[in-house]
Specification:
Radius of gyration: 15 Å
Strand content: 35-45%
Shape: globular
Helix content: 10-25%
Length: 149
């Protein structure tokens, strides 16, 4: 499982020109589910992102987690994070999980994040979406689940 996480002042997602979700301060999570991922990876990722200290404290240091700031998460499923681009000119998505595996794990991840006290808003799995955000910092992190988990 791979996530690109951005600290944001606000963000929203639209489908077909209609805004379906929006958040204020918090994080945008672009989540890619890999072939072979399971609930174990979803749980690890939810734990990691809920407690990751990348929000600023009163001294301007990255010392606070989203749980501590009370921010929300906008979660977007994005299989293209698993695209391999080293060979050729077209990305290969063979490492991405099939939709029948990826969708339930995306849902599980969102539910686990919500269980950790975070307001979770979602895009629509498999839809063509437009995501708008104001990256705060800018702060952008790439988080991969450990091998052999």
């Amino acid at each position: 499982m791979k996530a690109v996480v951005q600290r944001v002042r606000h963000a929203c997602v639209s489908v077909g020109g209609e805004r379906i979700a929006q958040i204020g301060a918090g994080m945008v999570v672009l989540l890619g589910v890999a072939e072979g991922d399971s609930e174990k990876q979803a749980r690890w990722m939810a734990d990691k992102l809920a407690s990751l200290r990348f929000f600023e404290d009163e001294q301007g240091k990255m010392n606070l987690s989203i749980q501590e700031t009370g921010g929300s998460a906008l979660c977007i499923s994005q299989f293209t994070l698993l695209g391999a681009c080293r060979k050729g000119r077209r990305p290969s998505f063979s490492a991405a999980a099939s939709p029948d595996l990826a969708e339930p794990l995306y849902d599980t991840f969102c539910e686990l994040l919500q269980e950790r006290g975070i307001g979770v808003f979602r895009g629509i799995f498999g839809a063509h979406m437009q995501v708008e955000l104001c990256n705060d910092g800018p702060v952008t992190l790439i988080v991969d689940t450990p091998d052999g988990l």
